[in-house]
What does this fold into?
Amino acid sequence: MVATALAAAHAPEAHAQAQIGGVSLEGEWYVGEGLGVGDYFSYNVCHISYKECKEFRFDFWIEGDRLVGTESKWIAQVVVHDGAKVAKGTMELGKVAPEPTGSSDSIKTYSSVYKSSIAWLSAFATAYGGDGGEGPKRFGAASWGKIANIGGEQILPKEVASVKVRGGTFEEAVVVSWRTGGAESRVWVVDGFPFPVQAGTWVHVSEGIPPQEYRFELLDYGTSESNPYEGVVATAVEGAAAGCPVDPELDSTKQTTTGGKYLIKATRGPEEPVAGCDMSLLLSFHSKYDETEFLNQVQYDILVADPSGEVVYTASRAEGSRVLYSGSGQTRNDEMWVPDEPGEYTYAILVRGLAPSNTQTRLDELDSLQIPITVVPNDAATAPAPAMPAAAVPSWIKSTTGFWVDGHTGDAEFVAAIEFLVREGVIAVSAGSSPATSGAAVPPWIKDTAGFWVDGHIDDPQFVSAIEFLVGQGIIAVG
It folds into this structure.
């Protein structure tokens, strides 16, 4: 299991070690090997860049493929279960390397984690080796490549072993590993399986205990002709119905703590949170001497005081821990508590000191930063409609539209892209829409409007409104 692998990562090992790999197993592998339409996968995954490796479930289903420019891309439907939060969106993946080349705003943070963990080996093992690609890697190869940012450490296929994860047992998994700051990072890959089935890796540090960089475990996989996540409702949609903002703008401040010991950058969204609705809070802790230097092993807490000065919330207590901890000096919480009553509140970032999470800090390290925040009333009557915003139009749609406007593709490709938006609910379809007219040409003014959208002269809602006209006239068949 993952826990066993992670524990083994810190086992003593001779410091001087020849960086030579290779196992006695025929064949080769690359990220995306055997991937096809209808395949779905479910992982538990975390990465240090997201809430200090807070684990969430990442599910994705390969709906099909689409030509974007001159390159064929996979289109994946994604659902994320992150605590009480559920996010849905679309992810565009390359076929040479299944890394995200575009995704819905609602899942951008999570698709970035996917790229830096589940798909990370695509930096070394790809479907095609020409034109700068890395190509498939043989299991018997002495090395799969070097990691430049940790001193040229080699990626080595080290052993063949049976591995049991919640998604099944794989008898001949190849353990690919590398050394990082005294710890051994491991990824388990299986011949013919598109993605690694398990991983436990560590951040490269020059001294001290390396924090977890990422870990993941395969939970389930299979094939499905229809979208297995069709009935899943994103909490952002529910939140909009409750008067909570969706995708708010962020406001940042960078200040030295009251006692001058630390520099803290705090970014929140929205600037004025809505009563009873969670807000996003991103914190980074820096050296007071050099703001580009992140502090490590930060023990901290977040306290909220009401207008009378009484503390009404303590983050560590809410999480059932002694303190909050950031090994990297960067942390993000998209579910930061906001009071139910509007008013003037103070959010205090309390830095207890710099030490491992299980170690007491010194009293003279204590310092704090107080941030006044106005909580505004929740007026659900004027809240945005619960439908996903027009900003959910995937980037590949704009690329396809641009090629259509320039005459590089025909009406059929453009219509196919719009039908995708209809299926996703981005474009509203009324029950009384006119029947489709076989062979009807797209009116020229639609191409003009689409061109304005591609060039940034009109926004997504105006473009969607124009396309809804096409649907209403029956020019686009919506099944």
About this structure: The longest helix spans residues 411-423. Residues 469 and 475 are 9 Å apart (CA to CA). The two ends are 46 Å apart (CA to CA). The helical segments are 2-8, 108-116, 235-241, 315-319, 395-405, 411-423, 444-454, 460-472.
